[in-house]
Specification:
The longest helix is centred in the middle third of the chain and has 14 residues. The relative contact order is 0.19. The chain has a single domain, classed as 3-Layer(aba) Sandwich (Rossmann fold). The termini are far apart. The protein is an alpha/beta fold. The radius of gyration is 15 Å and the shape is globular. Helix 3 links the parallel strand 5 and strand 6. It has a 6-stranded mixed β-sheet, sandwiched between helices. The chain has a two-stranded antiparallel sheet with strand order 2-3. The chain is about 25% helix and about 30% strand.
Length: about 170
């Protein structure tokens, strides 16, 4: 049985519609709903709800909490997935690489350009790919989205293309 730790931080992938205000917000995790839609043979996913924030609102202290959560998960299974907002995913990826150094497992960051609750969302695809990738990639810090696995350093968001690319 492959075991993956899934750490949620918020971001667009987990935004939900607030009927009262008419806004998309990070109020609660929707990971449970997403995971129930997947068929994961021989894979156990353990979820850790760390925070519910838009990545543009993340502070250095928040990133320290993410590093600590990933560090704590490194000895517990076959891989780690961090759900993260796409706007600053690259900052957190570089921070994890710098703070953790050599890791013994794949650490995968992913997010979505459109929330899970919206039509034509890439959220479920990216979550599925990331869970799979965390079980098969070599150790390191990765960004997985839209059919690609890109290893840090040098991963950036290409806003025009609406995906992540390797810089340089």
């Amino acid at each position: 049985m492959r075991t993956i730790t899934l750490i949620t931080t918020g971001g667009t992938i987990e935004k939900t519609y607030d009927e009262r205000t008419g806004e998309l917000e990070n109020r609660r995790s929707v990971v449970g709903r997403m995971l129930r839609r997947l068929r994961l043979e021989d894979t156990a996913v353990s979820s850790v709800e760390l925070m519910h924030k838009d990545s543009l609102d993340l502070t250095d202290a928040d990133r320290e909490r993410i590093v600590a959560a990933v560090r704590g998960a490194l000895g517990t299974g076959h891989g780690v997935v961090v759900l993260h907002g796409t706007d600053t995913l690259e900052v957190t990826g570089e921070t994890l690489l710098r703070e953790l150094g050599e890791v013994a497992l794949p650490v995968v960051l992913t997010g979505a350009m459109r929330p899970f609750e919206m039509t034509r969302s890439d959220a479920l695809q990216n979550l599925t790919e990331s869970i799979f990738a965390a079980g098969v990639l070599e150790p390191g810090v990765w960004c997985v989205a839209h059919g690609r696995a890109l290893r840090f350093p040098g991963v950036v968001k290409d806003r025009d293309a609406g995906t992540f690319v390797k810089n340089g």
